[in-house]
Amino acid sequence: MIDFEPTPEQEEAINTAHKFAQELFRPTSRHYDEHEHESPRELIDETWGERNKGTLALGLDVTAALRIEELCWGDAGFFLCVPGPGLGGAAIFASGTKEQLSRFLGNFNEGDPKWGAMAMTEPHAGSDTAAIGATAVRDGDEWVLNGEKIFVTWGKRAVENPGSLVVVWATVDKSAGRAGMKSFVVPAGTPGMRVEKLEKKLGIKASDTATIVFDNCRIPFENILGNPEVKKVDKSETKGFKGAMATFDATRPIVAIMAIGVGRAALDFVKETLGNEGIDIRYGVPKQKLTALERDIMEMEANYKAAKLLTLRAIWMMSQFQPNNLEASMAKAKAGLAVTKITQKAVEIMGPLGYSRKYLLEKWMRDAKINDIFEGTGQINMLVTARRVLNYSRDQLK
Amino acid sequence: MISFSPTEEQQMIVSMVKQFATDEMRKIYRECDESGDIPASIIDTAWQMGLISNSMPEEYGGFGGEHSAITGSLIAEELAWGDLSMAIHILCPALFSYPILEMGTETQRKKYLPLICDERFKAATAALTEPHFGFDPYSLSTIARSDGNEYVLDGEKCYVPLAAEVDFLLVYAAENGSSQCFIVEKDTKGLEISERENNMGIKALPTYELGLKDCRIPKENRLGGSSGCDFGRILNHSRVALSAMAVGVAKAAFEYSRDYAKERVAFGEPIASRQAIAFMLAEMAIEIDATRLMTWEAAWKLDRKEEATKEASLVKAYADDMVMMVTDRAVQILGGHGYVREHPVELWLRNGRGFATFDGMATV
Description:
The complex is a heterodimer of chains A (398) and B (364).
Chain A: H1 8-34, H2 41-53, H3 62-74, H4 76-79, H5 86-95, H6 98-105, E1 116-119, E2 135-139, E3 142-153, H7 155-160, E4 165-171, E5 181-187, E6 193-198, E7 209-220, E8 224-225, H8 242-276, H9 292-319, H10 325-350, H11 352-355, H12 361-369, H13 378-390
Parallel strand pairs in A: 1-4
Antiparallel strand pairs in A: 2-3, 3-7, 4-5, 5-8, 6-7
Helix pairs in contact in A: 1-3, 3-8, 5-8, 8-9, 8-10, 8-12, 9-10, 10-12, 10-13
Chain B: H1 8-35, H2 40-48, H3 69-82, H4 84-103, H5 106-116, E1 125-127, E2 143-147, E3 150-161, E4 168-175, E5 178-185, E6 191-196, E7 207-218, H6 231-263, E8 265-266, E9 269-270, H7 275-303, H8 309-334, H9 336-339, H10 345-354
Parallel strand pairs in B: 1-4
Antiparallel strand pairs in B: 2-3, 3-7, 4-5, 6-7, 8-9
Helix pairs in contact in B: 1-3, 3-4, 3-6, 4-5, 4-6, 6-7, 6-8, 6-10, 7-8, 8-10
C-alpha cells in the first residue's frame, strides 16, 4: 500500500533525533565551524551513549534515514562525528562473511566510541575508483598494504581510536583492472597505518577528512572482504567490483538524506524569517499572481520534497531487499544538486542575514555542497542513472 | 508505514489500463489528433473497465469500490501515457460525479449519480477556467448571486471538455467572493455553448467556451445545498489528477526518445552513448519519478481527508515544468525528426505545454 505516514516508533525516532539536533548540535555548531580539527568530545560521548541505547541507531533503513535527516538539520558536520561502523561497516555488511561481521563489528558498540572508515579515494583516483594504485601483496598468512588514501571521512578517528577500523581498497593484481580490486579491514593501531594530514575544507569542518598512508602495513589474511581470488572477467563486467558498488547502493541514499536535512534547515530558517516579517507564502495561487519570492520558495520546497521522496524510496527498497542501484543513484543525484541549489538560493533570498556568519545559513550552504561530491559526484550519479535507464554497460556509455 | 508499493488490486487495475492504452489508444492517437475526433467505440470500451463507476456506491448504480485519489492517479497516469485527449475524455464524467459524490446533498446524489453510472459512457463535465488573463480559481469572474428561490449565474468559461454533448455540468462561480459550485442542466435559459475551441494541443478532445447570461437555476442546485462545497478540496483533486497525467505524457516522451537515442547512430555510435544525450535522459527519468512520488503523496493526503493545498499546488507547478522539460527534450533528442509529425514527440510537446494552463479539467 502506498503510504507516507511514519509509524509511531518512527515519529519518536524523529523527535528524539530532532531534540539532539536542537539542543546538542545547534548551540555549538558555529564554534566547531570556526575551530576546525577541534574534536567535539562531549557531543561524541553523548551520541555514542544514545546510539548504543538504540535511540540514535543509524542503520540502513527508513527509520535511520528519518533520524539522519534530523541530525543533519542540526549539523551535518556533527553527524559525521557520531561514532559508529559508518561506511567501513557498510562495506563489511555488503561483502563480509558471517565470521568477519562478528569479528569486526560484534563488539563494536561496547566500550569507548569507535568509528569505521572507508578509504577508497586516492590523489589520482577519485570517482574513477577502478584506477586505484594502492597495493595488497600476499605474504604467507598476511597481506602487505602500501599506498596513500585521501579524503577519508573520519579517518583520523578511525585510525587513532582503539577498536575502530578502516576498510581500505587496494589492488591485488593491477593487470586485472577492476577484478583485482579488493577491500581489506585494517584495525586501528595496526603498525604501518598512519594519518598523514587533515584537510581544511569549505564546510563540514567538524568532520575530520584525513589522508592515510599505508606503509608496509601488515594485516591477517582473513581480513580481506569477499573472494581473494582474482576472477579474470571481460573488461566490461564489474563483478570484481561488486562489493564497492553494493556499498554505494546502500550509502548513496544515506548521503542523499544528509543533504535533505541540511536543505530543510535552510528552508526552515527562510520560512521562519519570512514568518516573523509577516510574509505569507500563498500556496495554490496561480503563477501569474505569485511574487518572485513566493515562486522561489515554492520551487525550493518542491525540490526538497522531490529529493526526499526519491531518497525514501531508495532506502525503502533496500529495506525490502529490492535492487536499488538505479533509485539510489537517482536519489543522490537529485538530492545533492537540489540541496546545493536550495541553500545557495536561501543565502540569496536572506541577503545580509544569509551571508553573515552571525547566522548558520551561510554555513549550511558550505556544508551542503559536499553532498553533491562525496559518495559519487552528481555527475557520476547521473552517469549511473543514465546507464541504468539505457541498459548500457560502462563501455557503451563512458 | 512508509511504503511505495501499490496494492495488488491497484497493480491489477494499472496493468488492465496499461493494456488498453497500449492496444487501443496508442493505435489511433495520431489519427485522432489530426482529425480532431475520438471514435465513440474506444470511449465505450474504456467505460467498460468501470474506472469511474467502480468507485461509486452500489445504491447509485456503481460497484461500491473505494474512491481513492491514489488509485485515480495511477489510472490517470496510464491513460495519459496512452493519449492525453482520450484520457481527459474518458475521465470527464468524474468532473461532475466525484464532487457530487463527496460534497453533494443526498438529493443531488440520488438524482445525478445513477445517470453517470450507466452501462454506456455518459458525458458530463465541469466548467472552471475563464477566458481572460489572470484567471484565478479562487477569485472567479463568473458570479453567482442569490435571487429568491434561484441562483443567477453570469460569466464566461473556457476549456470545458465535452460541453456540447452533456445533459448537465458543474459550473464554478464566485458567490460573495468565494468559489462555489452549481449544477446546471443543458437546456437552462442563459447557458450558451459556443463553437468548439481550437487549441495547440489536446486536439482530439472537444472543448468549448460557454457563456452564462442571467442563467437562472433552482436554489437546490448549489452543490452541497446550503452548506456549499469545499472548493479547495475539489481543486486539489483536480491538480493531483493533472499532475498524474503530466507524468504519463512525460513518460511516453521519455520512453520514445530513449529508444530512439539507442537506435539513432551518429559518428559511428548510438547518440545515447554520448553524455550530452544520456544525461538529458537521466534527468528526465529522475524528474518523472520525483513528480510521480509527489503526486502520490498529495493523493495520499486527499485520501486521508487532510488539507492538501500545499502538496497539490506544489506538485502541479512542478509537474507543469517537468512535463515541458521532458517533452521538449524528447523533441530535441530526435532533432529534425522530432519536429515532423511522423513521430509522436511533437504531439506530446504540444500536449505537455497545456498542463500549465489546465486547471479543473480532470479529477481523481
